[in-house]
Amino acid sequence: MLDQSLSAFVRQLRVATMVMLLSVALPAVAVPVVATDVTPVHSLVSQVMDGVGEPSLVIQRGASPHSYSMRPSEAAALENAHVVFWVGEELTPWLDRALGSLAPDARQVALLHTEGTRRHAFRERVLTDMVDHDDHDHDHGAEEHDAHDHGDHAAEVDGHHDHAGHAHEGIDPHAWLDPVNARYWLGVIAETLAEEDPANAAIYRRNAEAGQAEIDGLVEQVRGEVSPVHEQAFIVFHDAYQYYERRFDMNTVGAISLSDATDPSPAHIADIREIVGEYDVQCVFAEPQFNPALVDTVLNGTSARTGVLDPLGSDIATGPDFYPTLIRQLTDRLVSCLGEG
Predict the structure, then answer these.
(1) pLDDT band at 11, cuts 50/70/90?
(2) Which end of the chain is more exposed for a tag (fewer CB within 10 A), N or C?
(3) How many alpha carbons fall within 13 Å on the CB side of residue 217?
(4) Rounded to two decimals, what is the model's pTM?
């Protein structure tokens, strides 16, 4: 009896040893090394990769994505990447060149150009009498569709306008400020990573579905919160918010700066001051990265209030919770300022 027990113990020991040796001999399936450009994209990728890995962030929080000098560690992140998720060259033209030299073999996904992303052209001016209401109505029709069928994001709106002397040309890259785009991008990110890493495909897809459900709730919450103030006129520092405005039917009537790189002319400032009075502007919003004195110039002698909006959430901690926090922050600041009147 003792011999049988001893034999059984020896067999179990051999099996356990073989399992241990096999686990040591067989390398674990490598998780793709992933790099991202800006904090909103980093947040969406972090949500999808939760529990599997963490993406690197090339453009640090609070920095301007339009002209950024990478540190050696950020360049190394691109060199080591298997997959790079970025908005596109419209936001970071310098990164397009860097990817060509540092990450030529990486899978590069420009989210702005993925089929199904809702896109809008840059506007020459954000003025009430310049808004293309036909395009605005068309976008509302798409919103109706989105509200009833979140699984279908095939519709794409480019909405190009032929304005002479356009300060910007082409697609406005701030597309993450439409949460429906972010919802769609979660699916794109999950499917891309599932193809690169089939062993963790179920986790990526499950995480994306959870993020999409959170965005569904977020959209409905924001609609309810902005509803009492959505007709109140306001002015932004630069025209970076049309994706949010169109999604939630907000009433932007002017932008202090038409370009991220240059200060507005005195004539444009005079136009904006006239608009403040003509359209009963309630709030003029500054941005932390730009000259606040320009906002003071616009506000001087008016009853309009001031607030701060930031399309990149420079004061929000990076990570999976960044994106929903960004949308809530924009909403809170808009409603707080516009609701004071």
Answers:
(1) low
(2) N
(3) 6
(4) 0.81
